[in-house]
Design goal:
alpha+beta; 4 strands; 39% strand
Length: 107
């Protein structure tokens, strides 16, 4: 059985993230992405504590496509070290799971 995952990526603004997500969906690397604008992120970067507003997307995809999403993110993302995390989906609505598989390219 093909495993599906949720991949989260943050970016400096929702418009950049929407364009990036649209490209992933167009290329069948993700079935969809849910974008949340205005996420407040507090983190350590270059020995300083940062407090910034970002946008975040959760992509729904196949586990086998994560490496391609990571590679694309590293090539196109404005951050030096972008946040990209893939989390396994333990269970799902069977029809939704099938839709994710149908909407993405086989790994």
């Amino acid at each position: 059985m093909d495993q599906i995952v949720d991949v989260t990526i943050t970016a400096p603004d929702a418009d950049w993230l929407a364009d990036f997500c649209r490209g992933l969906v167009t290329d069948r690397l993700a079935a969809s992405g849910n974008i949340i604008a205005g996420v407040r992120s507090i983190y350590r970067w270059q020995d300083r504590i940062e407090d910034a507003t970002e946008a975040r997307v959760t992509l729904h995809t196949r586990a086998a496509l994560v490496s391609a999403i990571v590679a694309r993110t590293l090539a196109e993302h404005p951050y030096e070290v972008p946040h990209v995390l893939a989390l396994p989906v333990v269970d799902a609505n069977p029809a939704y799971r099938q839709w994710v598989l149908d909407a993405t390219a086989p790994g």
